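// run 5 | inverse folding | seed 20
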């Protein structure tokens, strides 16, 4: 999604208040944005905590800062600055985290983001965006830019099933209709869940993609909730169970008295074998590949 991000920010660069800060990343991808912004494109170096603090200062002076780094270097390394400098002051800082989930593959757990939106959802006023497909990025940049408070954007790699076309971006959207279980997936893993059932008939699952969190800021729409009665709800996310959408939706259903038939989750399992590999390898170990999802969610 880096190319789409660059294009969307280049289109937004005419705004004189936009400032972009990178943690020494983006080479071979963000040069068009660098050229468009000139002195408003700042390389903050490998100093993410400082970068977030600087962004907070810029926002406090009325500018629109966007920060960019690998996802765990954003939410984990600079959590104190995000919490204290940005969120407690409701500052309009846009945090771009590249490589959500297992996206950085063999680089291992230091570069994986398996608890990012669960951690950040605890902070006041922070809206989280998780685009599912490459075509979502322009709409996400526009929405994040219009957000009255802080925003975090988790970037990954969109995977639309062959022969299908993703519907236009909305925070919650239906990818396929079916009378079976209701499957909800967060961000890019929605493409994998969709592909698992893309060829099923009307008795197959109803598959949805969710791209904005937390539920308090992006509640399920009515057309989603009306489909839950008497059905099994399945939540799929490339994120640990703790703090994920599955837990939040389970509480939401209990509090609202939603009469589900059953409830299942498939989440990131960490590193069961103790070895590191590609994103596809880690997804398979967690049961997040298409074949495993089909087996788990229709058993």
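// decoded
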């Amino acid at each position: 999604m880096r190319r789409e991000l660059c294009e969307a920010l280049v289109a937004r660069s005419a705004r004189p208040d936009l400032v972009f800060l990178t943690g020494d990343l983006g080479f071979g991808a963000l040069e068009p944005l660098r050229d468009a912004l000139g002195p408003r494109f700042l390389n903050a170096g490998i100093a993410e905590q400082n970068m977030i603090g600087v962004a907070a200062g810029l926002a406090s002076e009325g500018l629109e800062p966007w920060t960019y780094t690998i996802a765990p270097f954003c939410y984990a390394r600079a959590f104190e600055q995000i919490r204290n400098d940005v969120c407690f002051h409701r500052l309009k800082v846009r945090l771009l985290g590249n490589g959500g989930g297992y996206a950085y593959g063999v680089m291992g757990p230091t570069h994986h983001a398996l608890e990012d939106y669960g951690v950040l959802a605890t902070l006041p006023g922070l809206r989280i965006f998780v685009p599912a497909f490459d075509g979502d990025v322009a709409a996400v940049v526009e929405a994040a830019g219009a957000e009255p408070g802080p925003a975090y954007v988790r970037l990954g790699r969109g995977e639309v099933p062959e022969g299908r076309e993703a519907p236009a971006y909305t925070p919650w959207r239906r990818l396929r209709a079916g009378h079976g279980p209701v499957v909800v997936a967060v961000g890019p893993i929605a493409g994998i869940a969709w592909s698992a059932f893309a060829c099923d008939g009307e008795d197959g699952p109803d598959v949805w993609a969710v791209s904005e969190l937390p539920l308090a800021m992006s509640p399920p729409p009515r057309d989603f909730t009306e489909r839950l009665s008497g059905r099994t709800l399945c939540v799929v996310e490339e994120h640990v169970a703790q703090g994920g959408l599955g837990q939040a939706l389970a509480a939401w259903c209990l509090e609202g008295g939603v009469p589900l038939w059953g409830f299942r989750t498939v989440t990131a399992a960490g590193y069961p074998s103790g070895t590191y590999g590609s994103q596809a390898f880690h997804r398979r170990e967690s049961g997040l590949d298409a074949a495993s999802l089909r087996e788990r969610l229709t058993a």
